[in-house]
Amino acid sequence: MKKLIAKMKRLGLSPKKEFLILGVVNLVLVLVTVLGKMLAKNTVFLIIGPGFAVIFSIMFLTRYDTEINKMHTNNLLEFSDLFNFFRIYIKNGYNVYSALKEISYFANENLKELLSKLLDEIDEDKSVQPFINFAHNFNEIIIEELMISIYQMIDEGEQSNYLTQFEFIFDKFSESLTTKELKKKDSRLGTLSSSALVGSCFLIVVIAIGVVGVIGDMTNGI
């Protein structure tokens, strides 16, 4: 439960609101099940209602992982775009601090906040630690390597061998990110196909149960 709540908060969602939505929808489905059984006198509602409740609950509660992964991917893509601009600024004579400040103007809300925190920490701490702290937000070792190489560029600027090192690591990171995105798209297409198949099977089962229920009611009537 704690992990679930932590995921909600990470996405900026209110746990109380999320659980309220889940509870209300399930309550509505229960009421529909009971009323359907009473009014239509068909046992199929005893299967459809709980079935939809279970499916909705699973989809509702597992979407957080999907959203977190999406946010992580968006941050990586944003990082790639921003630090491509960073490289351009460095090559045009900007120092590391000024280049970081300039790219923050183009960042999305999340990365703007992280870059602002990085710049504030650099003002207070001239060691490599602020750069490592920034990298930890992405949970990617290669980004930590990039940030360390940026720190090493502070005294040398665009004439430094560390710029070449940064470009090598950055190009490797960009290539890896592109490959991952292509694989995710292929995987997403496969998931969509599987979901459609599962949905079709569920619909067929529900229809079959409904037909059996109707036949049973007709038989009992006769």
Compute the number of strand runs: 0
Please give the radius of gyration in angstroms.
27 Å
Indicate the percent of residues in helices. Answer: over 70%
Derived structural class: mainly alpha
Word description of this protein:
The mean pLDDT is 79. Helix 1 (2-10) crosses helix 3 and helix 2 runs antiparallel to helix 3 (45-91). 84% of the residues lie in helices and 0% in strands. It is mainly α and 222 residues long. It has helices at residues 2-10, 15-40, 45-91, 96-104, 109-124, 129-135, 141-152, 161-221.
Short synopsis of the structure:
The chain is an all-alpha fold and 222 residues long.
Task: Note the main attributes of this structure.
elongated, mainly alpha, 0% strand, 222 residues
Give the topology, please.
Layout: H1 2-10, H2 15-40, H3 45-91, H4 96-104, H5 109-124, H6 129-135, H7 141-152, H8 161-221
